[in-house]
Specification:
Blueprint lengths: L15 E3 L7 H12 L3 E3 H7 L2 H12 L6 H15 L4 E3 L7 H7 L4 E5 L3 H15 L4 H5 L8 H10 L1 H6 L6 H14 L5 E4 L5 H8 L14 H39 L1
Parallel strand pairs: 1-3, 1-4, 2-3, 4-5
Helix pairs in contact: 2-12, 3-4, 3-8
């Protein structure tokens, strides 16, 4: 969690679908769930960026088969969802949140908890994040970095796949917030759907889960923006350093070639 991908536990039972949008306290929420449910939580932003190339490529393949139009699409999507969430007690953030109906079918006993925040503040925050991860030169900077060289492709399939299917747009703005809440109320049985603001702390979350409030333990307060952007910035720095080595090697090679040619 945070800037480090969680490690799955084969004994973990999947119990919670975190259906909140990115930038709604999903990092803090995931840490809280991990403590209360005693197991690893799959935070989409961290896991996708912090895992192997095979992992992000599998998500690209899955999302490329949305909207689901035929049994073949359904088989690919459901197979990956079953594989990727095995070993976790819960998931939070995109892309898991956008596959809530499929996850409910796979885990019918799971509860769906949507994290909330002020919609207008969320819109400003998500729009700023969208601008930062869609810069035209990002694909060039990240090309030498394993996993991250696929990040822009991951964003591209997201825009035209499940995201556009659900929200009708390729961007993230206030319309997405409103449509997301409406969609959850349509696809999740009311007795399974809960809404939670991380600012409210342990008590309402523990009530939803039916567990005791931890004594003497502060509710996790982690910053979604810092967690995900910090991870991406670290990868960009890796890209810059790798490019420096590559270009430095090219410069040395060119210098040697010119020197030999001049003799």
């Amino acid at each position: 969690m945070g800037q480090t991908a969680s490690i799955p536990d084969p004994k973990a039972k999947f119990q919670v679908i975190g259906a909140g949008l990115s930038r709604t306290g999903t990092t803090s929420f995931g840490s809280a769930l991990s403590l209360l449910l005693s197991g690893p939580v799959y935070h989409g932003g961290t896991q996708v960026v912090g895992s192997s190339e095979a992992h992000i490529k599998s998500w690209i393949r899955c999302i490329s088969h949305t909207p689901i139009r035929n049994p073949g699409d359904a088989q690919i999507v459901n197979s990956w969802l079953r594989e990727v969430f095995t070993g976790y007690v819960a998931c939070t953030d995109y892309p898991g949140a956008q596959f809530t109906p499929e996850l409910l079918a796979l885990y019918p006993d799971a509860k769906v908890i949507c994290t909330l925040r002020d919609p207008d503040r969320w819109a400003k925050s998500i729009e700023a994040m969208s601008r930062s991860v869609t810069m035209w030169h990002l694909s060039v900077l990240l090309w030498p970095v394993p996993t991250m060289r696929w990040f822009v492709r991951y964003l591209d399939v997201t825009k035209v796949g499940r995201w556009k299917e659900l929200y009708g747009v390729e961007t993230a703005d206030r319309r997405v917030w409103e449509k997301h809440i409406e969609w959850l109320k349509e696809v999740v049985p009311p007795e399974k759907l809960f809404f939670f603001d991380v600012r409210d702390g342990w008590e309402p979350l523990c009530k939803i889960l039916g567990v005791e409030v931890p004594e003497g333990l502060e509710f996790p307060r982690e910053n979604d923006k810092e967690a995900v952007e910090g991870l991406i910035k670290a990868q960009v720095m890796r890209g810059l350093m790798t490019w420096a080595v590559i270009l430095g090697g090219v410069a040395v090679g060119l210098g040697v070639w010119l020197s030999l040619k001049a003799q």
